[in-house]
């Protein structure tokens, strides 16, 4: 009979509580309840499996007490009464991956460019309208920029290209690194921004809809202009009390749906009975953003907005039940890593400034897969 490991129940409970997959844990580990109460203890093999299932380093289970895990940046999240902010290991690991990549890019720009970005933190003390206009100017956009794009994907790609021209690093992913078994939970966070005047980095949760990703991207740019790093919900109905979140949400809504243009389009299309979807396609934001903007501009009452909002959520659930394909691996990888980071890593690797092992660690790609990715990028001239 396999020997049991003398692991404290407090450590097992801590690992259990930080997991967002608790039901799966109970199915996988039949004696889990007894482990958590201290009645029984796991074997070493079971502990290894529990460590992997909860994304907890194995060594943590041999500590005297649970470690205190804190995010290095503020975490703005709308909470229900009685809830507390519980940070998943998936978010923590993703944030650490992005910090390592940002460190690399900062050193890269310091070596080859040297100049800092004067727009970072340039809008401190500004109001909503000023920040919205500053975003338009920064990205060299006109108020009706979204009209020229047929799809949300096209609009998002266009915005990302504009950001990269301004040296804003954009990364998108719906999983932790390349681990398809660890999907990021959009209800925990839609994105985060690591503000830096040499290499600002925005991460977008790719499990979200394209329209929501557009809103998140603009919201995070507002954070850069205000000089404030954050993990955020970036939702048009976010009711977080933090003043900076309200400011970034309102600035994103104003930039994406400028008041005068919005009012004109609302009055034009309201009689056709599909105003939310019509304006959603015009401004390249979700129907929820359209509804919230209409409420804020007093085109709708609060009751009318929430009646639409809950009906829309039901439709959305039905749509999300449909499966979607994962797409081409190397195209997906390019989206995950971003063009700026990809180019910098490849250049530093082929010039011998960093070792291939460093490139593997930074990209999460190894050996032949990394070589194939480099060839893929070279063929497309990215």
**Sheet with most strands:** 4 strands, mixed
In order across it, which strands form the biggest sheet? 1-5-4-6
Determine the structural class based on helices, strands and strand pairing.
Answer: alpha+beta
Helix content: 40-55%
End-to-end gap: 57 Å
- Uncertain residue ranges: 79-84
Helices and strands, in order, run as HHHHHHHEEEEEHEHHHHHHHHH
Topology, number of strands: 6
Gyration radius (Cα, Å) is 23 Å
Helical segment count: 17
What number is the mean pLDDT?
A: 88
DSSP strand (E) fraction?
5-15%
Shape descriptor reads globular
What would you note in describing this structure?
This protein is an alpha+beta fold and 382 residues long. Helices cover 53% and strands 6% of the residues. It is built from 17 helices and six strands. Strand 2 and strand 3 form a beta hairpin. The protein is globular and about 75 Å long. It starts with 8 loop residues before the first helix and ends with a helix. Mean pLDDT is 88; it is low at 79-84.
Question: Can you give me a brief rundown of this structure?
Answer:
This protein is of the alpha+beta class. The protein is built from 17 helices and six strands. It has a four-stranded mixed sheet with strand order 1-5-4-6, with helices on both faces. Strands 2-3 form a two-stranded antiparallel ribbon.
Keywords summarizing the entry:
alpha+beta; 382 residues; four-stranded mixed sheet; 6 strands
């Amino acid at each position: 009979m396999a020997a049991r490991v003398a692991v404290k129940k407090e450590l097992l409970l801590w690992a259990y509580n930080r997991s967002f997959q608790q039901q799966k844990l109970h199915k996988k580990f039949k004696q889990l309840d007894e482990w958590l109460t201290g009645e029984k203890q796991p074997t070493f093999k079971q502990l290894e499996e529990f460590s992997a299932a909860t994304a907890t380093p194995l060594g943590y289970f041999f500590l005297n007490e649970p470690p205190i895990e804190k995010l290095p940046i503020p975490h703005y999240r709308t909470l229900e009464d009685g809830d507390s902010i519980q940070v998943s290991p998936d978010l923590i690991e993703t944030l650490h991956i992005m910090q390592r990549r940002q460190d690399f890019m900062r050193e890269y720009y310091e070596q080859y460019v040297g100049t800092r970005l004067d727009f970072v933190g340039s809008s401190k003390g500004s109001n909503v309208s000023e920040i919205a206009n500053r975003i338009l100017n920064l990205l060299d956009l006109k108020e009706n920029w979204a009209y020229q794009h047929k799809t949300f994907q096209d609009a998002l790609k266009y915005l990302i290209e504009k950001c990269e021209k301004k040296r804003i690093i954009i990364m998108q992913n719906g999983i932790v690194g390349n681990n398809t078994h660890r999907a990021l939970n959009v209800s925990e966070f839609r994105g985060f921004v690591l503000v830096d005047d040499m290499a600002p980095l925005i991460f977008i949760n790719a499990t979200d809809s394209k329209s929501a990703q557009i809103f998140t991207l603009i919201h995070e740019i507002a954070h850069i202009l205000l000089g404030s790093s954050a993990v955020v919900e970036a939702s048009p109905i976010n009711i977080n009390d933090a003043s900076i979140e309200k400011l970034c949400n309102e600035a994103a809504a104003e930039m994406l749906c400028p008041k005068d243009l919005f009012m004109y389009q609302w009055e034009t299309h309201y009689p056709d009975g599909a105003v939310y979807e019509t304006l959603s396609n015009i401004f390249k934001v979700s129907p929820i953003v359209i509804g919230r903007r209409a409420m804020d501009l007093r085109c709708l009452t609060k009751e009318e907005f929430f009646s639409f909002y809950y009906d829309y959520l039901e439709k959305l659930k039905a749509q999300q039940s449909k499966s979607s394909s994962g797409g081409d691996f190397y195209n997906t990888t390019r989206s995950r890593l971003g063009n700026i980071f990809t180019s910098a890593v490849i250049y530093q690797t082929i010039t011998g400034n960093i070792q291939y092992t460093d490139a593997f660690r930074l990209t999460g790609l190894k050996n032949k897969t990394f070589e194939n990715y480099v060839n893929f990028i070279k063929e497309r001239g990215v």
